[in-house]
Every structure is written in structure tokens, then in C-alpha cells.
Design goal:
Elements (H helix, E strand, L loop, with lengths): L1 H19 L2 H9 L9 H5 L4 E6 L2 E2 L3 E2 L8 H10 L4 E5 L9 H10 L4 E4 L5 H10 L3 E5 L5 H13 L3 E6 L2 H10 L3 E5 L11 H7 L7 E5 L5 H9 L4 E4 L1 H5 L3 H9 L7
Bound molecules: the ligand O=C(O)c1ccccc1NCC(=O)[C@H](O)[C@H](O)COP(=O)(O)O.
């Protein structure tokens, strides 16, 4: 199962980073950070049709999405900022997505927007890393965490001033996310066993999630019709990666998904 491989490689890379930068070093970096604008990300995600635009070079399901030479993540961050997206998601997983914390740090220095560290969070160390790199939010995937870890990581994120998108794939995981106190739930439309995409998953699960919890629909969103279908299902926002990464004119594509006519001014 791909998630098992992702967790195993994430742990290997994290152990290597821990040998270079201790938890105490990260805490010192956080203490020395200049005061950055703080965001109420949960409140932001409750607005109607929030757009989270993702920066990623590759993925397990699609392989290489953008050639390494064309992966100008700072320019992409500027394009997303110009399009006034609500948050930028940066993949930092190194093996399958070819991401890094260095990319997140550079993006954080390029944009005033809040940034989601999109990774397979498996240890408190990674939450400190996210904060030190300049993220405003982290991803917690229910399928790879115990209930105790979910509760502990949510509390640590809050303590560090980070929001958390808690990702769930089915009703049992939604229940665990709600019990742990999630304020934002990400519903993944992609089945991670066979990589098929099914928006009906978000539509089904939205009905079981309390209205005060923001629901973000993730993966496989390509057209205005997809977004309209998700809007009708009552989701608060969308997280889009591949469609934006492949779009030559990102601002036009973002506006198209929002249902706006593109205006260069
Ligand atoms: O995208 C994958 O292949 C994948 C495989 C295993 C675990 C996670 C995976 N994707 C992470 C994501 O959450 C997506 O990058 C994100 O939802 C955006 O999806 P898309 O718009 O389809 O690029």
C-alpha cells in the first residue's frame, strides 16, 4: 500500500534531518522568528469556496508533473498570490513528490499568504519543522495516526499557532477526526489503493460532518463543473494541485475553476 511506503520513507528522511537539526535547534529558530502575520486559518477555510493552490513537482499517481527545469516554485507562488488564492499548499515529502522544506521556506519568503505544509506528519518533530519553515498549517492524515497521536498533534499545532487540516477518507475516519477536535477536515477524493477519483466521496461525507467544521475537498479537481458539483455538496473549499501545476496561465485557470471570467487587470 502506497501510504505504508510513504510513511516508511518519510521516517527515513526525518531521521536524517534530525541528525542535522535537533529539536532544540528548531525551537530556537522558532523563538527567533520575526513576528509574521498570523492567520485564523480555520475561519478562512469556512468562507464559501476557499481555494488552496498546491505546489508540487511529482506525485505517486502521476509521476513527474512538471519538468525539474520548469519547476520555478517562487514564480508559481507569485502567480498564486496574484490570483488571490486563500492558501498555498507546499508538498515537502522528498521521495515521491520531490518536495522539500527548503521549497516551503523559499515560498514563505515570496508570498504573504498562509502556507500549508503538505506532508505525512508522523512525529511532533515535523510540526516544529513546519513552524520553523514558515508554515501556517499542517496536514494530519487520520489513516496513518492513532487517536492519541491525532489529539497530541492537534494540541501541539495549536500551541505553535498552526492550523491543521485533518484528512479523512471514509466515515470511520471522519468520526475520529471530529472526536479529536478537528476544525478543518480534508476529504480526499482519491482512493489511495487504486488512485481512482470519486467526488461522491466528499458529497457523502459532508452530510456526516458538523456544519461548523470546514470541509475541504482534495484531489482530482479539474473543471468548473467539478467545483460546482462540490459547491452543491456544501464543501467550503477545494485543494487543487495537478490542474494548476499544468496550467500555463495559472491565474486564468484559478478564475475558471472559481467561475470567474479571466480579467488580466
Ligand atoms: O496524489 C497522489 O498520487 C497521492 C498518493 C498518495 C498519497 C497522497 C497523494 N496526493 C496528495 C494530495 O493530497 C494531492 O497532492 C492533493 O490532494 C492535490 O491533488 P491533485 O489536485 O489531484 O493534484
Amino acid at each position: 500500500m502506497i501510504l505504508d511506503d510513504l510513511v516508511a520513507t518519510t521516517r527515513q528522511h526525518m531521521v536524517a534531518r534530525q541528525a542535522q537539526v535537533s529539536l532544540a535547534d528548531l525551537q530556537a529558530q522558532i523563538a527567533a522568528q520575526p513576528v509574521r502575520r498570523s492567520f485564523d486559518v480555520a475561519q478562512l477555510m469556512r468562507q464559501p469556496m476557499t481555494v488552496i493552490a498546491e505546489i508540487k513537482q511529482a506525485s505517486p499517481s502521476k509521476g513527474q508533473i512538471v519538468a525539474p527545469t520548469a519547476f520555478d516554485y517562487q514564480q508559481i507562488a507569485r502567480d498564486y498570490t496574484a490570483a488571490k488564492v486563500d492558501m498555498i499548499s507546499v508538498l515537502t515529502e522528498e521521495e515521491y513528490f520531490k518536495g522539500s522544506l527548503a521549497i516551503l521556506t523559499a515560498v514563505a519568503q515570496t508570498t504573504p499568504l498562509p502556507i500549508l505544509r503538505k506532508d505525512f506528519t508522523i512525529d511532533p518533530y515535523m510540526i516544529y519543522e513546519a513552524k520553523a519553515a514558515g508554515a501556517s498549517a499542517i496536514l494530519l492524515i487520520v489513516a496513518i495516526l492513532t487517536d492519541a497521536q491525532l489529539t497530541q498533534y492537534l494540541a501541539l499545532a495549536t500551541e505553535l499557532g498552526l492550523a491543521a487540516i485533518v484528512e479523512a477518507h471514509d466515515s470511520a475516519e471522519v468520526e475520529r477526526a471530529v472526536m479529536a477536535g478537528a476544525q478543518i477536515i480534508g476529504v480526499n477524493n482519491r482512493n489511495l489503493k487504486d488512485f481512482t477519483v470519486d467526488f461522491a466521496n466528499t458529497q457523502r461525507l459532508r452530510t456526516s460532518i458538523p456544519a461548523e467544521i470546514a470541509v475541504i475537498s482534495e484531489s482530482g479537481i479539474k473543471t468548473r463543473a467539478d467545483v460546482a458539483q462540490l459547491e452543491q455538496a456544501g464543501v467550503n473549499g477545494i485543494l487543487v494541485g495537478e490542474t494548476f501545476m499544468r496550467a500555463p496561465n495559472k491565474q486564468a485557470m484559478i478564475n475558471e475553476l472559481r467561475g470567474f471570467k479571466y480579467d488580466q487587470n
